């Protein structure tokens, strides 16, 4: 199966809520993933995961994320190729949020290593 557009793992580098830049510890997520099976997954600071069904609107540069209660959010994105950054812009409680993630080599992440893993849902 071909990897989808933006496929990969991204470490959160910066978060801006309204006009305030948050310290890394003030944002509950440390990494996010664009999964090949159509999911946007956020890894929390305690390593728990939150996943959203993902569809693309590439003509409008939108990611459309939907949770299990069918709540939907439109996420504007931009790619900064020279710095390997993916920038997500969306609204949270009617406040603008910008999350900047730096691309990781997802093949080197712990889950991808050839060893036993516990996955609890």
Description:
The protein is mainly beta and 121 residues long. It has a single domain (8-112), classed as Calycin beta-barrel core domain (Lipocalin), CATH 2.40.128. Helices cover 0% and strands 55% of the residues. The protein contains no helices and nine strands. An eight-stranded antiparallel beta barrel has the order 1-3-4-5-6-7-8-9. A hairpin with a 4-residue loop joins strand 7 (72-80) and strand 8 (85-92). The radius of gyration is 14 Å and the shape is globular. The mean pLDDT is 86.
Label this structure with key terms.
single chain; 121 residues; mainly beta; Lipocalin; 55% strand; globular
What's the arrangement of secondary structure elements?
Blueprint: E1 8-17, E2 20-22, E3 29-35, E4 39-44, E5 49-57, E6 62-66, E7 72-80, E8 85-92, E9 95-104
Antiparallel strand pairs: 1-2, 1-3, 1-9, 3-4, 4-5, 5-6, 6-7, 7-8, 8-9
Number of domains: 1
Shape: globular
Question: What low-confidence regions span 5 or more consecutive residues with pLDDT below 50?
Answer: none
Task: Examine the secondary-structure arrangement and name the CATH architecture.
Answer: Beta Barrel
Along the chain, the helix and strand elements come as EEEEEEEEE
What's the assembly state of these chains? single chain
β-strand amount: over 45%
CATH names the topology as: Lipocalin
| Spatial strand sequence of the major β-sheet | 1-3-4-5-6-7-8-9
Level-1 CATH class name: Mainly Beta
The N- to C-terminal Cα distance equals 25 Å
Number of strands: 9
Q: Rg to the nearest angstrom?
A: 14 Å
Structural class: mainly beta
At the fourth CATH level, what is the homologous superfamily?
Calycin beta-barrel core domain
Count of DSSP helices?
A: 0
- The mean pLDDT is 86
Largest sheet: 8 strands, antiparallel, barrel
Provide the helix percentage. under 10%
